[in-house]
Amino acid sequence: MRTMSADAGRVAATVKDAPNRGVIARGLGRSYGDAAQNGGGLVLRLAAGADDVVLDRAMSTACVAAGLSIDDLLRFIVPNGYFVPVTPGTRFVTVGGAIASDIHGKNHHVEGSFGNHVRRLSLLTADGTVRELSPDDEDPTVFWATVGGMGLTGIILDATFSLIPIETSRCVVETVRLPDLDALFALMSSGDDAVRYSVAWIDLLAKGAHLGRSVLTRG
Length: 219
Fold this sequence. Notes:
alpha+beta, Uridine Diphospho-n-acetylenolpyruvylglucosamine Reductase, domain 3, 2 domains, 3-stranded parallel beta sheet, 6 helices, 13 strands
């Protein structure tokens, strides 16, 4: 694996000189699957820090390099009164990886996955061209192929996405124990639309009448 900055010229030259198996970008390696594996080819990690984050308060957006981790991003935007629109179970993923994997969070039922909040992105394709993509393009096919595309459309260099303004440091949380899977689904179906975050922990060892007993936390 090679680590380098997200300079478009350097990345394009690296892609051009890649071995026959080509290049694939890699984030911080937290995927549950075998993402960014490229035997006989090149795996590229784009390093980035929070110094280059461009925060637009009027639009509540951030423009960041794809290699920036959500951990570093949060350390910058939270003191400025913002939170990421979608956060997975770990902060240690990159923004590029979040887009390529189209990560989901505990607010998926209300606000969708990370890709739903991306306003634009820069994509370096295999021929060395940098394409500016947006969901508002006349033909957004390549944009949506890149969101959730696991890096197969090219290398994401940077992206602009919406942020959530932080209204308070507190959250009203409800925790409910449910006796079985039917009770869990019934409660989630009847009340999850009223909350931003919802997650259930299910006992996979329970059997019989207690199959799917759970603890539901939402707020």
